[in-house]
Amino acid sequence: MNIGLDMMGGDFSPLETVRGVQLYLKESTSSTLLWLVGDENQIRPLLQEYAIPAESVRIVHASQVIEMNEHPTKALKEKQQSSIAIGYRLLAAGKMDAFISAGNTGAMLVGALYGLKPIEGIQRPTISTVLPKENGKTGVLLDVGLNADCKPENLHQFAILGSLYAQHILGIPQPRVGLLNIGEEEGKGNILTQAAYPLLKAESRIHFIGNIEGRDLLIDKADVMVCEGFTGNVILKLAESLHGIARNQKIDSEYFDRFDFEYYGGTPLLGVTKPVIIGHGISKSRSFLNMFRLAQKMLETDLLGKMKELFLS
Amino acid sequence: MNIGLDMMGGDFSPLETVRGVQLYLKESTSSTLLWLVGDENQIRPLLQEYAIPAESVRIVHASQVIEMNEHPTKALKEKQQSSIAIGYRLLAAGKMDAFISAGNTGAMLVGALYGLKPIEGIQRPTISTVLPKENGKTGVLLDVGLNADCKPENLHQFAILGSLYAQHILGIPQPRVGLLNIGEEEGKGNILTQAAYPLLKAESRIHFIGNIEGRDLLIDKADVMVCEGFTGNVILKLAESLHGIARNQKIDSEYFDRFDFEYYGGTPLLGVTKPVIIGHGISKSRSFLNMFRLAQKMLETDLLGKMKELFLS
């Protein structure tokens, strides 16, 4: 398989991207070829320094970089030679099978929405996060910010996408899908969740367990937690902050350590035709390693093929 | 002043309500008369057992109780002799100056919305919660569930109500008001927050500091955090769950202890013409003490008078 990485993405690139490549190649037993997109002059010496085997990587020069604070659409249009723009072209052309970047999140999203197609039948691609459960397990929350305003059908589709992700990537055989809401009983909620509930209830392709509430997010009640992107993004950022708070409070806790989102690598963009993984700006080598692992797993399990199949059926 | 308490409200009543009365009367130096509404046969022996001075309380017999799981509107209509129904009648008649209950939350809200008037100019009353800040301070989050779907003008009014509450009850001279959003810059967000931002920005009666994000909720960035009731309720319940999680994880932390919402007593219903405080079902004596303190403070500072004034101007 061919996995592409934006070598210039993230606050600590290209040093940490190179170190991530090193970690991944050390452990990988698959015949993966890594496509490294970025400024050749910066990358080559580092690849040498970190003794990256030449046969495992293909360097693709990119003379431009989209900076973190640039306007996504404008930057993508104007910087055709940026690592993100080139990466998406290679992905669309089928040279790469997956593309990873910890660069400008907006540009990664815009690039995917314009450069790739949504899976047939999917109205709105989505991004998710994993949430550490108090008992050691892990759940998926989606959407976490790509879709700030949603229709009931969007939540319905997120439920299916999240369920497939939990099943194939997290290895949960029959994921319990919960609708994030402000009351337990059917009929509770705002206009959106009241309308989404019957759609989820009638959906035979998921195991819907009903409404869940804020108090259930960190306990092992649902494996897939569905909401619109506004609430999801607030939860994601609140959850991310818990790690720093625990550290500031000098709390030594394995549980709150798991809120260090660096640990999880990046979030996949679900609903587009190719695997795209978007990393945190603060990604370090371990995050890139985890993003490579995720891309590999998405390809090995043919997650997107399964999504296509389900949405055609 | 005359403060009323629903003696039958809460999972541990009337024992814990009586114990709360005892705690409050012990510390109170004001000439407060407590109106205790509930089943006389249950209350009288307990008042005697806890040596509550007869001159400090007035017992109002209520032959019915609205149970926690009853349908609010139906129960209020059918149980005219319930402690909540009687309490609201006494409040509306001016016998009591404030009314406290840890009973059926829905019934408390319905009772207030039908039995009391909203303050002139206020479209939607709101409920708030306090959130412990990581540096020891405290902020106000609102709405936390009364208004699951909001218009921009509702958020605008919540900002003003929350600001007055922070100023007079929490003692913060010029409360920083933040709009909870999914991006820092003006123009970010969902349809609601994009439309609410300019209203808050143009509002001279508050100190608006712009957007805040999920990561800012527990740090000392804004004193008043404004959102619609769906997201607010999810945050409230997630925050409440942190205390139990920390305890389960055997984390000994003063900070996470502050997420024990019993500590704060109840939440005031803001925007109606009289002080109404709604307690948690699990309220114990200390919660009732704190609710008495809050009612007293709301009366002493004439918070509602200040709200009326501001909305008339």
Features:
homodimer; 313 residues; alpha/beta; Isopropylmalate Dehydrogenase; 2 domains; 11-stranded mixed beta sheet; 11 helices; 11 strands
What does this protein look like?
2 copies of one chain form a homodimer. With 313 residues, chain A is an alpha/beta fold. Chain A folds into 2 domains: 1-118 and 272-302, Isopropylmalate Dehydrogenase, CATH 3.40.718.10; 123-270, Isopropylmalate Dehydrogenase (3-Layer(aba) Sandwich), CATH 3.40.718. Helix content of chain A is 41%, strand content 18%. Chain A has helices spanning 15-27, 40-49, 72-78, 83-92, 105-115, 152-168, 191-201, 229-248, 254-257, 285-300, 303-312, and strands at 2-6, 33-38, 57-61, 98-101, 126-132, 138-142, 176-180, 207-212, 224-226, 266-270, 276-279. The first copy, chain A, has an 11-stranded mixed β-sheet, sandwiched between helices. In chain A, α1 links the parallel β1 (2-6) and β2 (33-38). Chain A is globular, with a radius of gyration of 19 Å. The two termini of chain A are 28 Å apart. The mean pLDDT of chain A is 95. Chain A binds chain B through residues 134, 145, 148-149, 180, 182, 189-191, 193, 213-219, 227-231, 233-242, 245, 248-249, 251, 253-256, and chain B through 134, 145, 148-149, 180, 182, 189-191, 193, 213-219, 227-231, 233-242, 245, 248-249, 251, 253-256.
